[in-house]
């Protein structure tokens, strides 16, 4: 098992326990936070897929590093799983860029989450401003080169 798979499994257990037994039961953002492991997995798969353009892989690699890093805009060490909201938003901005520059079947073959990946990304981006605030959205867009 590589580092990314190990992180994915630990993240899945941590978030599932939070959502079922912890504070996540009452969080309005639980459905989004539960996406974190599947989004992380998708990022890891896409970054090594030969059909993804190199420029997009750089954005994906940044999003992976952001997920793994203990230092980010909403730190998980302080906020618990709710701290993954900024990671999820950053990842979906990166995925949105990949979606416009990569054939749809590439994303679909690597998506292990529930529902349609394109709909999931749209839902997250629609709620992003309310989830983490406009100020953090601007910082995230600047990090990944978005407008």
UniProtKB/TrEMBL annotation:
One of its GO terms (cellular component) is endomembrane system. It comes from the Bacteria. It is found in: Endomembrane system. Transmembrane segments: none annotated. Its main location: membrane. Residues 57-92 form the DUF1232 domain. Keywords: Membrane, Transmembrane, Transmembrane helix. It is a multi-pass membrane protein. This is DUF1232 domain-containing protein.
């Amino acid at each position: 098992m590589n580092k990314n798979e190990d992180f994915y499994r630990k993240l899945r257990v941590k978030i599932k326990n939070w959502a079922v037994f912890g504070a996540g039961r009452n969080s309005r953002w639980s459905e989004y936070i539960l996406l974190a492991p599947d989004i992380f997995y998708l990022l890891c798969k896409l970054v090594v897929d030969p059909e993804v353009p190199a420029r997009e892989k750089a954005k994906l690699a940044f999003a992976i590093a952001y997920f793994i890093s203990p230092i980010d805009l909403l730190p998980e060490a302080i906020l618990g799983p709710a701290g993954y909201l900024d990671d999820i938003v950053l990842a979906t901005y990166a995925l949105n860029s990949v979606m416009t520059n990569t054939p749809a079947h590439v994303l679909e073959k690597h998506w292990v989450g529930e529902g349609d990946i394109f709909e999931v990304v749209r839902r997250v981006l629609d709620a992003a401003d309310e989830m983490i605030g406009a100020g953090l959205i601007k910082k995230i867009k600047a990090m990944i080169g978005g407008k």
